[in-house]
Design goal:
The complex is a heterodimer of chains A (230) and B (493). Chain A is an alpha/beta fold and 230 residues long. Chain A has a single domain, classed as P-loop containing nucleotide triphosphate hydrolases (Rossmann fold). Chain A has 8 helices and 9 strands. In chain A, the strands form 2 sheets. Chain A has a 5-stranded parallel sheet with strand order 6-7-8-3-9, with helices on both faces. In chain A, helix 3 runs parallel beside helix 5. Chain A is globular and about 50 Å long. The termini of chain A are far apart. The relative contact order of chain A is 0.21. With 493 residues, chain B is an alpha+beta fold. Chain B has 2 domains: 184 residues, no CATH class; 294 residues, no CATH class. In chain B, strands 1, 3, 4, 7, 8, 9, 10, 11, 12, 14 and 15 form an 11-stranded mixed sheet that branches. The two termini of chain B are 26 Å apart. Classes of the chains: A alpha/beta (230), B alpha+beta (493). The interface between A and B is medium-sized, with 33 and 25 residues. The structure holds adenosine-5'-triphosphate (ATP) and magnesium ion (MG). Magnesium ion binds next to helix 1 of chain A. The site of magnesium ion (MG) has 4 residues of chain A, from helix 1.
Amino acid sequence: MTQLLDIKRLKKSFTQPEGGNLLILDIPEFQIAKGEQVALIGQSGGGKTTLLHLIAGLLSLDEGSIRIDGIETNVLSEQGRDRFRAETIGYVFQTFNLLPAFSAIENVRLGMAFGSGKHQYSRAADLLTRVGLKDRFNYRPSQLSVGQQQRVAIARSLAGRPKLLLADEPTANVDPSSADSVLELIRETCREEEVSLLTVTHDMQIASRFDRIEKLDEINQVDHSSASSG
Amino acid sequence: MSLIHIAWRNFCHRALSSFLTTFSLALGVGLVVLVLSIYGVISEAFTRNASVGYNLVVGPKGSPLQLTLNSVFYLSQPIENLPYTEYMEFLSQDERASMVKKFGGDPKLAERNGRYAPFVSGGFAIPLALGDYFGQYRVVGTTPDFFTKLKHGPNVDEDFTFSNGRAFQTYSPEHQYFEAVLGARVAKDMKVGVGDTFNPTHGDPEGQGHAQGFHVVGVLDPTGTPNDRAAFVNLEGFYLMEGHAKPVENVDQFKPQNDDVLDQTIDAVESDEDGSEQDTSTADLQTTVDAGSSETSDESGSSEKIRLLTIPEREVTSILVRNGNMLFAPGMQNAINEGIRAQAAAPIGEINKLMSMIVGPLLTALLAITGITCAVAAVGILVSIYNSMNDRRRDIAIMRALGARRSTVTNIIVFESFQVALIGTIAGWLLAHAAMVVFSGQIEDQTGVQVGFFTTSNYEIFVLPLVLCLALIAALLPAWAAYRTDVGSNLSA
Ligand SMILES: Nc1ncnc2c1ncn2[C@@H]1O[C@H](COP(=O)(O)OP(=O)(O)OP(=O)(O)O)[C@@H](O)[C@H]1O
Ligand SMILES: [Mg+2]
């Protein structure tokens, strides 16, 4: 089976404010196949966001390797990684991270702006329509509800036709029935476009819909029971 | 979405701050462009005024600049005068002989060619006598040659034209020697026209008025030269005003032997110069009028026959000379300057010296001040963008997370600075040129230089590149901050 994401002996620690290093992640092995959809669950402060940032190349790892689509991203130059990210990875941030100066459709178009692919307006419009924001193209993020902002973020993450979509609690800010439909939307789109999906959630209800559920505690060898606040 | 589009969105997002920054830059650029335009207008006014159709001004020894100022620009006080004989040095033996005969003077003058006459041959020498005023305007005593031989305009090929009337004549039966022609501005300002008379005041604008009135027979069209600001009177009439004759002992010995032939002599001189038949008849007429009637003489306050000044009594302030062959000009200038009495100055050279000595540095200082204004505006760009960097760190991190490179986010900042620079420069340019248009009437009145909206000075093309450079420098610090923005720690989690 071809692995789209292949993590080996990954270690990541942060310098603590009071000095000294705190090891957050120590993952001997973790893989996602092409087109596979995985739910990642774990306690707060466990390092889920950190793992996604590492995969996206937004943080650099201390040890080990991350291979995406056959390319070892952690040895790429920074420029190479930026470019790789623009073309291969979609990311729905836990806090959406929409740009306030830009309208909904412009935010989606920004998802295509930095890659080498075409910047199609029609693609952006299509995605926004699919997430149910057909009549909100020109709204600024501040004029959108939290759930609507989240849907813009989802449309943006898919705009650049990524191979891997990282979604950090994409349903945390919507009511349960909307959460279901947002999740269905993501999964549906990923299936259609053959995108591998790694979704972080702590909602077991949501996680249970996935064929494959991973617990960070199990793949991560760092014991957080003492460090975490729960 | 292009980077420029992204930069523009950022510009609009911080609309007030962007507007204020751009506006302050526009004011700075506007000032610079205005100063450049004024510089352009002044230098054009000066060179235009120096395009006078003659290449040398001859006057008493002294400052060549002052000579130029008072003979070309009718500014500053005349230094001294030259004896009329100095003027005669530019004339041929024939002309000199007829003058001696007509006005009376040392017979030896008639025995030789003027010393500089060979240099001038084919050109002209026109005498000027200054010293009187009409209102605040200079009265210029000269000969009718002034209006026929001098040209003006950018290519120095335009003749003087009259909006009303004609050039004055050396002698006319109606007004004898007392005809005048006014520059356009004088006529407009003093509300005097053809048919009116005026009395020059002696020495300075507030000086005592002469009893002698001059009849305005023509008003010139505007020329955009200092001639617009002058009241021209017939040199012979000028000499006849009280106080204008140089006191000479025993004048009588120089008086023409035969007063009766006087007018025929004038006639001879006149026809020598332009070969006009009409002058002959005028002169004939004059003889009869003078001999038979005193009616017309009443106006000049004298019923006696008018006696012209003798050569020793005559003085000129300066002589406008054009060499028939320009190759002779330097030789003649040297010859004159080696003499004891006179100097010859090249107006264009003097004006360029003046420009580089006084006007140039003054404008350079002005330019420096406005340049500093621009630099301050550029600092404004820096401060405005740099202050927004705190808000922007997150935006930059997001764009980086979307795949933008460090260089891309850096470029966005630079583009933003360029945007302010471009808009500010264009707005400033428009402001300055709009101001020029608003004041174009006054500028034309004062300098004769016409300015339109699209009148640009040579240096203006440097403004935009310069401001863009400033903008680039201003963008360096924020761009560096953008470059260094760390993605991981600035993405809110
Ligand atoms: N830049 C950083 N410097 C130091 N420590 C950090 C940094 N970023 C994260 N950490 C620490 O790493 C741990 C994991 O953080 P992370 O954001 O990955 O948690 P998470 O699993 O996503 O939690 P949540 O479910 O609440 O979002 C936390 O204890 C956090 O304090
Ligand atoms: Mg998290």
